[in-house]
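Run log // design_07
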């Protein structure tokens, strides 16, 4: 518990799939896929990863010019890379922004998260692909965050940090004879009391049964008597009509 942290220092797909990082077995197929994956970061990506921000959940209509206008408030920008589809050229909804100074990077990381751009609340984090050891992307069953509806939740990142594990103390159950002799004697006496109490309850219930039977019989005779009276009244009415 001393080395526990809400943010993962090294990516482990099995721990990322657990809300507190204590799972021992994968609970979905995506975790199996991430554990078996051998991912190598894209060597074609240039720039300093320790000065780069990851910006996600963008409006598909948001452009590089809009991102530069918003994120240049925090410092000088060296490069903006808005990820687009290779075939259609449309935005995929996330981008990478490289700053010239670490101070600007930290300020943008602190203040720009959950900022609204083009009616979309964005998510901002450090680039993890080249900085976090063992990183597995979302498409291979890894990543962080995720929507509950998809069922592929991943913990240990800024969006969904780990929750502190709950360690319950080992408590002995004295009812089944564990613990000291005094407690065991007390538990046995208690069980005898419960048995006598149940026995008395059964006896009182047996005494009440004849009374209930009489009451039910009386109720049935009353109903029969009422039905007979109604029949006789109906016959008298028919005779009068004749």
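design_07 sequence
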């Amino acid at each position: 518990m001393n080395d526990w942290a809400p943010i993962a220092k090294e990516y482990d797909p099995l721990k990322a799939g657990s809300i507190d990082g204590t799972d021992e077995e994968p609970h979905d197929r995506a975790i199996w896929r991430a554990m078996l994956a051998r991912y190598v970061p894209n060597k074609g990506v240039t720039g300093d990863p320790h000065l780069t921000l990851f910006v996600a959940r963008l409006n598909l209509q948001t452009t590089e010019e809009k991102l530069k206008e918003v994120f240049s408030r925090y410092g000088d920008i060296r490069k903006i890379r808005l990820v687009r589809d290779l075939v259609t050229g449309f935005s995929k909804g996330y981008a990478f922004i490289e700053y010239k100074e670490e101070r600007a990077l930290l300020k943008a990381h602190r203040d720009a998260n959950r900022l609204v751009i083009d009616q979309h609340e964005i998510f901002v984090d450090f680039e993890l692909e080249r900085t976090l050891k063992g990183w597995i992307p979302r498409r291979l069953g890894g990543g962080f965050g995720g929507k509950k509806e998809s069922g592929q939740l991943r913990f240990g990142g800024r969006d969904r940090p780990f929750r502190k594990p709950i360690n319950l103390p080992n408590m002995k159950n004295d009812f089944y004879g564990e613990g000291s002799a005094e407690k065991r004697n007390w538990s046995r006496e208690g069980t005898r009391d419960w048995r006598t109490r149940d026995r008395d309850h059964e006896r009182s219930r047996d005494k009440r049964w004849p009374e209930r039977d009489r009451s039910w019989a009386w109720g049935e005779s009353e109903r029969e008597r009422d039905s007979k009276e109604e029949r006789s009244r109906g016959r008298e009415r028919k005779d009068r009509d004749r």
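The two ends are 98 Å apart (CA to CA).
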